[in-house]
Every structure is written in C-alpha cells, then in structure tokens.
Hints:
Elements lengths: L1 H16 L4 E3 L11 E4 L17 E4 L6 E8 L14 E11 L16 E7 L6 E7 L11 E2 L2 E3 L8 E3 L5 E6 L5 E9 L6 E2 L8 E7 L2 E6 L11 E5 L8 E5 L9 E5 L10 E8 L4
Antiparallel strand pairs: 1-19, 2-7, 3-6, 4-5, 4-7, 5-6, 5-8, 9-16, 10-11, 11-12, 12-13, 12-14, 14-15, 16-17, 17-18, 18-19
Amino acid sequence: MKITLLKQIMLYCLGLALPFAVIAQNSLNHKTTAPVLILPAPNEGEAKDDESLPPDMYLPGLDYQSGKDWWALSCGDDTDADADTNTCKITPSVLKVSRSPFSPYGSSMDSDPIEGQKLHWLPGPPVGTLLMFKFNPTAKLVKPTAGPVETYYYPVKDKDIFRKNTLGMTESELVMPNGIKAQLLPVLVLPNSKDKVVGDQLSNLLTLELRIGAKRQTLIKNGFSAYNQDYLAWAGDLDSDGKLDLLINTGSCSNEKNIALFLSSLAKPDELLGEAGRFEEDKGC
C-alpha cells in the first residue's frame, strides 16, 4: 500500500513539472552537434529592473553558455502596415548567461523557484526580432553576414497569405521571386491508412505539409494544433542558397514560444527542407 501511494505521489509531482518543461533541441551549445541552435526572441515585457535595458530571457536548467557568433533575425515592427517585406535583416549579438532562480509558475504565483539561467543579449535584439540563432561551425552552411536577408514573408498587418479551407483549417501560399509557389497545409493523417485529408478533426493526428510543385514533405509530423492559425513566422533564404527556408511556430497558443527552423541546404535528396533546430517551451495555454 505504501509503495502504491509513493508511486501516485511521484506521478502527481511529475505531472506538475512536465507542463513547464523547456525542450531546447541540442541546447548545450558548447557540445551541440545540431546544425543551428535557435532561441525565440525575448519579449519586450520581460525586462525586470530597468525598462530601458534590452529584455532578458529566463529559462530553467543551466543549458546555455556565454559566447559570441549569435545572430538576430528581425523584420522591424510587425504593426507597420507599410513595411516592405524585403527589409528583414540579421545582426550579430553576444550571449551573456548568468544563473538566476526560475519560477515555473511565473513571478506572480506562490511557488518555490528552481535552478535556472538568465540570457542577456549584447547588443539587445532589434525591435521585431523573430529569432536568435547560432550556426554550428562544423555544419556545412554559409556563414551569416550582417545585413539584409532575402525574405518572402513575415507577419505584417494587412499582408496576409493565409486562407481558410472549406473545413476551417488555415492554409497558406507563398509566391517566390522566381514565380514558384509553395503551399503549407495542415493535413490529417488517418490511423492505419496512407490516405490524407485536409481537416480540423483529431487534431493530435494533424501534420503540417509543404508542397512545391509535385513535391511534398511533412514538416511537423504529429501533434500540429488545429488552433494554430499563424504557424508561419517567417519565409526567406537564411542560408544563402537561393531556395526557400521556413521558420514555423509550432505552439498551439500565444503563450508558448515553440519554433522550428527548416533550411533547404540541409534537405536530404528526397526532401524540400531539413530541420535545422527546434525550441519548445511547454507552459500550457
């Protein structure tokens, strides 16, 4: 009886801890073998003491190390309806990491802090930063250079590429400079079947599919949320190979900073894109 009770207590505690876990793929940046280490940009409202200073990011664990060769991908103020979709840029930044207690429930909740870290950027990310990233020196990728980056889409008011299909799911279509069209579609994979239909049922079986011409590739293979209506965070050419790259928001709500970066230069022979890095912060909606 005592053993059973102990198991129940352990499972309950684990259930409390899991919703606040952060999964930063290959987040040990001094040991990573990942092609690209990625982090979401800190929110402007996350500055703690001096609001004039750039915001910091607070994460559980001690995964990151201070270092240079980080970059910010920014596209200006996303509320600017007159912004040019080709004005995105990348700027260099240095990461400064220090230990800091982390409250998984937020500072307003009465909870014991856990061991964590504060991530501070110098200089601070520009307004409208979508992504902080660092290329692995051993990866066969073109080293980033500061300045404009070819951009096909980023979220700007009144410049919408999304449309709902007959089943209420949000599809998107990009037209690249060479006239080639790329489509992103939520697709329902039926159990025990190879058939696929676009739909909004059984959201745990939804995937996100990229289509360019006759080629198709599943980017998000399972668990793509039916509530994710703004999944495309950026589209352009980050690796300078003249082909489409994508930054996908994989979270099911705005409270989650879940992103995945896909680069054409990492694609296998049967793929359009290869996954370069992923960051998931599961806070719940």
